[in-house]
Specification:
Number of helices: 3
Shape: globular
Radius of gyration: 15 Å
Order of helices and strands: EHEEEHEHEEE
Structural class: alpha+beta
Bound molecules: ligand V0V, cobalt (II) ion
Helix content: 10-25%
CATH architecture: Roll
CATH superfamily: 2,3-Dihydroxybiphenyl 1,2-Dioxygenase, domain 1
Distance between the termini: 13 Å
Largest sheet: 8 strands, mixed
CATH topology: 2,3-Dihydroxybiphenyl 1,2-Dioxygenase, domain 1
CATH class: Alpha Beta
Length: 141
């Protein structure tokens, strides 16, 4: 079902301050930036590796308000790893399978993700305390 690690989501107070640090530390390039109002974030994607099944990235996340998932996370825990995201070919099939298995889906149907991907979150409680996202990249269905 999973094709790759698509990204590791990292909660930060400031994209502007953190992007250059990641670029310099690992010689990464920031290949995309976007504001996602529904998710309450400004995000930056730094390409780690472009593989056969799609890219893998570091995703830096800055909250656009305090009452958002990343805003609450930052206030409670400070900056750090917020979620892991796995690539899938068919997110509808993956969600159907997880529903049958009884997992607690934050999104029962896919929502809009970075670069027009379709994404869905699975609650951290059922997965070892790790907020987990599935990503079906645009055009790779
Ligand atoms: C909260 N908890 C976490 C967590 N956030 N545990 C692990 N990782 C996280 N990131 C734990 C928290 O410690 C509490 O545990 C419990 O969940 C409830 O916390 P809360 O602060 O009251 O938070 P809730 O319940 O209001 O919301 C938690 C969920 C929320 C996971 C439901 O964060 C959510 O809907 N996340 C999905 C959307 C999202 O994260 N979007 C931003 C990224 P205790 O204290 O009860 O044990 S957007 C993105 O990645 C995009 C656009 C993309 O990739 O394209
Ligand atoms: Co993400």
């Amino acid at each position: 079902m999973l094709t790759r690690i698509d990204h590791v989501g990292i909660a930060v107070a400031s994209l502007e301050d953190t992007i250059p640090i990641y670029e310099q530390a690992f010689n990464l390039k920031c290949v995309h930036q976007e504001t996602n109002d529904r998710q309450g974030v400004r995000e930056a994607m730094l390409l780690v590796h472009d593989g056969d099944t799609g890219g893998s990235y570091v995703q830096l996340l800055e909250p656009i308000r305090e009452d958002t998932p990343v805003g609450k996370f930052l206030a409670k825990r400070g900056p750090g790893i917020h979620h892991i995201a796995y690539g899938v070919h068919d997110i509808d099939a993956a969600l159907a399978s997880l529903t049958v298995s009884g997992f607690d889906l934050v999104n029962k149907t896919p929502v809009h993700g970075t670069s027009d991907s379709r994404i869905a979150f699975i609650h951290p409680k059922g997965l070892g305390g790790v907020l987990t996202e599935l990503v079906e990249a645009a055009g790779r269905h």
